[in-house]
Amino acid sequence: QLHLQESGPGLVKPSETLSLTCTVSGASIVTSTYFWGWVRQPPGKGLEWIGSISFSGGTYYSPSLRSRVTISLDTSKNDFSLRVNSVTAADTAVYYCARLALRGGVTTRIDYWGQGTLVTVSS
Amino acid sequence: QSALTQPASVSGSPGQSITISCTGTSSDVGGYNYVSWYQQHPDKAPKLMIYDVSNRPSGVSNRFSGSKSGNTASLTISGLQAEDEADYYCSSYTTINTLGVIFGGGTKLTVL
Questions:
Q1: Subunit contact B46:A108, Cβ cutoff 8 A
Q2: Does A110 contact B38 at a Cβ distance shorter than 8 Å?
Q3: Phi/psi of residue B32, each to 5°?
Q4: Which of the 8 DSSP states describes residue A10?
Q5: B2 falls in which pLDDT band (50, 70, 90)?
Q6: A102 near A31, Cβ under 8 Å?
Q7: Confidence band, pLDDT 50/70/90 cuts, at residue A80
Q8: Taking a C-beta distance cutoff of 8 angstroms, is the pair A54, A72 a contact?
Q9: Is the CB of A39 less than 8 angstroms away from the CB of B99?
Q10: Across residues B103-109, what is the average pLDDT?
Q11: Which pLDDT tens digit goes with each residue over A51-74?
């Protein structure tokens, strides 16, 4: 059974960098059938896709966050990471890591989600 | 403002059926059969309920069904149960960002 688990600081100061890691168990992240990605949800609001990464390291980001986001992966640890630079209070959210299914080279659905981790941006 | 439009809330009584709509454009919902639906209970991660417009993952009740007409996709829940009370989000492939994901704003389902 596939399991995704987010880890990282729950509190980040404004203007600093948010860093999270998603550890994957039950399957290898080295697969051409899936991407690995991040979705966030501000308190009381809806879901927002942040970006995704392929097993070969190709990255795809939301246009609204592209300038501040980096997603990377470590195949030796079977995990992938998220960095968001220059955070503000608007980046306060529950951050989910997820597996995105591909078909014909496009993303079709998110079939597995981590439990989510709340990151608060505050001084 | 979300890329896909959903009603903010819907409600129904136990045993009844409800439908949640998800309206997009020909660049997403209307153009491709890659619409998915997610259920989210409070303080829980979203759960995939429907994919490719009308397919159910293993383990999802057959009370949940999906369909699409033009630029609008729909999620129907029949035989409503108290446990169905949750937020529901639609999502779709989009030509604007083919390897990205767009979501609807979410619909709060209340079981009366």
A1: no
A2: yes
A3: -145, 155
A4: S
A5: low
A6: no
A7: very high
A8: no
A9: no
A10: 97
A11: 999 988 899 999 899 999 999 999
